[in-house]
TrEMBL record:
Cofactor: Zn(2+)
Keyword Lipid metabolism: no
Family: Belongs to the zinc-containing alcohol dehydrogenase family.
Coiled-coil blocks: none
UniProt entry keywords in alphabetical sequence: Metal-binding, Oxidoreductase, Zinc
UniProt-recorded name of the protein: Zinc-dependent alcohol dehydrogenase family protein
């Protein structure tokens, strides 16, 4: 099969012919119909993830068709249309038994712990716990974004942040995660302020529900305070930046909630005295368990949420190296979906 292969961190990957994955007991193999290009893939390419062993095939948000079913997997057949969380939980540990698969200590992530979906085929472990059946009317392109960015934002905003109608929510960073968060928070009735350096991303944020947009920079904090009457109830770092974290915590009202979704490979400095004195909440959120997808899928089916509107570009495997390199200069507006054509049906 054709796949994107990283041979050195920070050096552009190439499209190569590699062996197709074999199906393992408890797992399945998918024909990849669509897969998203995410900033986390860029972090992996740069060597920020210690789980990655070279050579490596990235890619973790995906949708496809089952082409092989391993021993011990029931209820799934060849030809089924599926997606999966990027966190493939084991299904047996204490966290999984409690329904918290997104923090499973035995989790495996495609594109990080093993070869991922920037390829014509991908293997998925623990299929019984992690597969999500797709509605027939949902396109693979739409479904691909659900496994990481959209589902991550849905859980962060709705299940962890518990955003309520009428609350002011400020989203810092309007890439795929941030724009998803804007759309979801607005659909919940919140008043959303979007912050980014990219005018194009801010234009999309307004299109997807932001009441106001703010150009990131030295004056952003004062502008946010003015727009929110003194500060928001909720802030979210959807990019991953020490500077953003400081601004997000600075503008929060007392007893406000900060959602941290963006990765912080260089660490972060926290004013713990402010967290204590203002009774602020720092809430980490990491993915979403497969068994909680039903509510999100229902909202998509009803048209309340429209993740398909976030897709601004569709590319092929041959375009991936250049698209990955673009992320070095910043996150482009909208969501990029890769369609890797397979040689066999």
């Amino acid at each position: 099969m054709r796949a994107i292969v990283i041979e050195q961190f920070g050096v552009l990957p190439t499209v190569q012919d590699v062996a197709e994955p074999e199906v393992a007991a408890g797992g399945v193999v998918l024909k990849v119909e669509a897969t998203g290009l995410c900033r986390s893939d860029w972090h992996g390419w740069q060597g920020h993830d210690s789980d990655i062993v070279l050579p490596h095939v990235p890619g973790h948000e995906l949708a496809g068709t089952i082409v092989a079913v391993g021993d011990g997997v029931s209820g799934w057949e060849i030809g089924d249309r599926v997606t999966t969380p990027f966190i493939c939980a084991c299904g047996e540990c204490e966290q999984c038994q409690e329904g918290n698969q997104q923090v499973c200590p035995n989790q495996l992530q495609p594109g990080f712990n093993y070869w991922g979906s920037f390829a014509e085929y991908v293997a998925l472990p623990f299929a019984q716990v992690n597969l999500v059946r797709l509605p027939e009317e949902m396109s693979f392109d739409t479904a691909a974004g659900l496994g990481c960015r959209f589902a991550t934002s849905f859980r962060a905003v709705h299940q962890v942040g518990k955003v309520q109608a009428g609350e002011d929510v400020v989203v810092f960073g309007c890439g795929g995660v941030g724009l998803s968060a804007v759309m979801i928070a607005a659909a919940l009735g919140a008043r959303v302020v979007a912050v980014d350096t990219n005018p194009g991303a801010l234009e999309l944020a307004r299109k997807y529900g932001a009441a106001d947009v703010v150009q990131a920079g030295p004056g952003a904090v004062d502008e946010i305070r003015a727009l929110t009457g003194g500060g928001p109830r909720v802030t979210m770092d959807a990019l991953g930046s020490n500077e953003i974290v400081q601004q997000a915590l600075t503008v929060l009202r007392p007893q406000g909630r900060h959602l941290q979704v963006g990765l912080l490979p260089s660490g972060v400095q926290l004013d713990v005295s402010r967290l204590i004195g203002q009774e602020l909440q720092w809430l980490g959120s990491h993915g979403m368990a497969a068994h909680t997808y039903a509510e999100m899928l229902d909202l998509v089916a009803s048209g309340v949420l429209r993740p398909q509107d976030l897709i601004t570009r569709t590319i092929t495997l041959d375009d991936v190296p250049a698209a990955l390199d673009e992320l070095t200069a910043g996150t482009p507006a909208g969501v990029t979906v890769i369609q890797p054509p397979a040689r066999r049906p």
